[in-house]
Design brief:
By secondary structure, this protein is of the alpha+beta class. The chain has one domain (2-71): Ubiquitin-like (UB roll). The protein has two helices and four strands. Strands 1, 2, 3 and 4 form a four-stranded mixed sheet that branches. A hairpin with a 6-residue loop joins strand 2 (15-26) and strand 3 (33-34). It is elongated, with a radius of gyration of 13 Å. The N and C termini lie far apart (27 Å).
C-alpha cells in the first residue's frame, strides 16, 4: 500500500459527494483504497451532516480546506 492524496467518493443515502485531498493508502496493483479510521469517520459524519442540508446548498465536490472551514477545525 502506498500513501497518496486521493479523491474519495462519499455520501449519505441518495446524496453523493466527492472529497478531494484525502490521505489514503492505495494498492499499486489493484487500486484498492483504504482510509485511516479517523478519516473514514470524518467522511461519514460530514456526508451525514451535508445530506441534512437543503438540497440546493449541498456541494457535489469539496476539498479538505472547505471541510475544515465547514466543521471549524484546522
Amino acid at each position: 500500500m502506498e500513501m497518496k492524496i486521493a479523491s474519495i467518493d462519499s455520501g449519505w443515502g441518495e446524496y453523493k459527494l466527492i472529497v478531494e485531498g484525502v490521505n489514503a493508502h492505495i494498492c499499486p496493483e489493484c487500486g484498492e483504497v483504504v482510509l485511516e479510521g479517523k478519516e473514514a469517520m470524518m467522511l461519514q459524519n460530514l456526508s451525514k451532516s451535508l445530506a441534512n442540508m437543503e438540497e440546493d446548498q449541498r456541494p457535489e465536490v469539496i476539498n479538505l480546506d472547505e471541510v475544515s472551514n465547514l466543521i471549524k477545525v484546522p
